[in-house]
Fold:
Amino acid sequence: MYALGGFLSSFLQRYHHLNSVYAGWLSGLIYGCGAVGIFVGGWFGDHAIRRGPAGRLMIPCRAAAIAVVPILVGLLLPSGLPWPCAVCLLLGCGLLYFYYGTVYATIQDLHRPEQRGLAMSTYFCGMYLLGAIWGNAATGKLSDYFAVKAAQAAGVLVDRALPIAKSVPEEYRAEGLRNALFIVPVLAALLSLILWAAARQLRKAEISGDGT
Structure:
């Protein structure tokens, strides 16, 4: 989500040739409307909790797995199709938003009231370090790497002493950013597997009587 948030506008500008104003509006539309997924995911989670914390955790697990498809389709669309791309990414973002309410609630289910503040602060610390900071940095590095590779494959001489923006033509930087964003569906698939494993562990704990 941080990779999309940090680079979505740049992707729409570079790859789909929108100006900064329209790219900003379209990015806001994708994230703003996609946030409806928080409420939908919370509604499903409140119903799934009847089957225990493991049942609620399976909601974002399934949503993340399904989200892989529209995000992949959106990234695979050819250049110059911003609206079909936006529809696909909006659907993918909405499904990934299922994560927040359900996972946060599960973390609190697993801790006594006096431990929940520390549990959530520990979680947020890890999430912001790995996602907001290193996630964006890693995506930027991948984008530069793929941009250079694309330019070199086309026979363009890249001066490594200059910034990427000056040494690599725009068309190859667009391709590099697009390739870097494929990390999003890969991580969504990995997230689904992790949530499935967590739900399985919770179910075992419930059966053995060691659950919450």
User: Anything to note?
Assistant: The longest helix spans residues 116-153.
